[in-house]
Amino acid sequence: MEVKVNELSEKQLDELIERIVISIRKDREEERKQFKKYAEHNTSLLLRYYHKLKGHTNSVKEQLEADQDTFWNHNWLDLSALMQNKAKTVKLMDHVDYALEVYEKVCKNSDSSEERRRYQIIMRKYINENRQSDQEIADYFNKDRTTINRNCKEAVKDLSVILFGVDMLNYW
From the CA atom positions of the chain, what is the Rg in Å? Predict the structure, then answer.
């Protein structure tokens, strides 16, 4: 069986390269969009379950203190393997708390009353001990619930940038 090799012209090579580049750019853009979508979703979940996760981290810290110098620290028992998931939660929640502190500073120093309101909405809806419904928040700010929902979504986007970094920005 004889194999024929055809050479591509410069023009054909250029067209092929252009198609490949366009395809790669589309794939990368889709990956960026998916990352942003997942990051915003994950930020919403972190906020929604903030108190449960914080309760979990507090119990982990208490458990580690209670288990110190007990059989859990024996050489043949790998405590780090047993506590790996819990340790991740503690580290993540420390990062969330730091992001909330940064977000608070940014919002309080903003010239925009809407941006300052966004931080307060997040705190009232998710973080404060006495969490409030969207309607209660709307009544407090004398705004429509749709405005509160829009501000909340924008706050989640802002927090996502602080939590997940530069990959959240579309133009990057």
Answer: 25
| Interval 75-95: pLDDT, tens | 544 556 556 777 788 888 999
CA distances (Å), origin 71, targets 58, 76, 99? 21, 10, 37
Enter the pTM of the model.
0.68
Q: Cα separation of 172 and 168, whole Å?
A: 8
